[in-house]
Structure formats: C-alpha cells, structure tokens
From TrEMBL:
Protein name, per record: Transcriptional regulator
Residues in coiled coil: none
InterPro entries in the record: Cro/C1-type_HTH (IPR001387), Lambda_DNA-bd_dom_sf (IPR010982)
Gene3D superfamilies: lambda repressor-like DNA-binding domains
A Pfam family that the UniProt record links to this protein: HTH_26
Domain HTH cro/C1-type: 13-62
Alphabetized GO MF terms: DNA binding
Length: 73
C-alpha cells in the first residue's frame, strides 16, 4: 500500500486508547482498529476530521504517502 497510516503513533503521543478514541469520534472500535492497522481502502473526510480534532493533529500526521516504486538507473 502506498499510503501509510500513522494513527498508532498519534494515539501514543496523546496517550489515548483505541476504545476512548472510538468513543470520542463516534465509530466502532472494530472500524477504528481496521483503520489503525491499515486494513481499510478508504477513510471519510468526516472521520479524518474527527480524528484530527481529537488528536490535535493534521491529516498529514495520520496519513503518509510512501513511494514503493522501484527506481531504475
């Protein structure tokens, strides 16, 4: 996957549990866990906004583009 999800890093910085964060943003712990582990193919802007609000961060702190293409020289 070319997009890395750093939700666990932001959660650790804020010292917030999966259960507490899911309660605050109003999604199930199952769905938040899937997002945290990168097992989702999409995320709603409303969910991303809620995560940023609760974690006091920017979308780029949670989502990171990783170039996985091989360089040919």
């Amino acid at each position: 996957m070319d997009i890395r999800i750093n939700l666990d890093v932001e959660m650790a910085k804020k010292k917030i549990s999966l259960k507490e964060l899911s309660r605050r943003i109003g999604i199930s712990t199952t769905n938040l866990s899937l997002l945290k582990t990168g097992k989702v193919k999409a995320v709603r802007f409303s969910t991303l906004a809620a995560l940023c609000r609760e974690l006091n961060c920017q979308p780029g702190d949670i989502l990171e583009y990783v170039d996985t293409s091989e360089t040919v020289e």
